[in-house]
Design goal:
Elements (H helix, E strand, L loop, with lengths): L1 E4 L17 E4 H5 L6 E5 L15 E5 L9 E6 L2 E10 L2 E5 L8 E3 L5 E11 L5
Antiparallel strand pairs: 1-2, 3-4, 4-9, 5-6, 5-9, 6-7, 7-8
Length: about 130
């Protein structure tokens, strides 16, 4: 599906952008790099609001991307899913929330841990 792109629009004042359509954009090409390895999920809770992931945000998650230090990931810890920022140091892995009300999760020996994918895009539904 192609969607009209109106180029760059200043955020400081209103503009009639419809006269300035530059191109049509295929969102699949820009957001979904690996279609067979990409899935969508919805965020639950408020632990990632500082990363602009409010409750019910739609996340585009790519399982083909290698998680890097600082990536926002979907992870499974002891059978439970979570969305957090990955912190990899010398001999440790932590999952960091983006809300000071929540504590980091340190991955320790004996825990079952897997990164399911890297969050590639966040879609926030319009307020009702």
């Amino acid at each position: 599906m192609l969607i009209a792109c109106y180029g760059f629009i200043p955020a400081g004042f209103t503009s009639i952008a419809s006269d300035y359509q530059e191109e049509a954009i295929d969102l699949n090409r820009h957001i979904i790099e690996h279609p067979t390895a990409t899935f969508f999920c919805r965020a639950e809770g408020e632990s990632m609001i500082g990363a602009h992931i409010p409750p019910n945000a739609l996340l585009v998650v790519d399982r083909a991307l290698k998680p890097k230090n600082g990536s926002i990931v979907v992870a499974v810890i002891d059978g439970e899913f979570t969305i957090k920022r990955l912190e990899k140091k010398m001999n440790s892995i932590r999952l960091l929330p983006e809300n000071p009300k929540y504590q980091p999760i340190e991955i320790t020996e004996g825990m079952s841990f897997e990164v399911w994918g890297v969050v590639r895009a966040i879609v926030i539904d319009k307020p009702e």
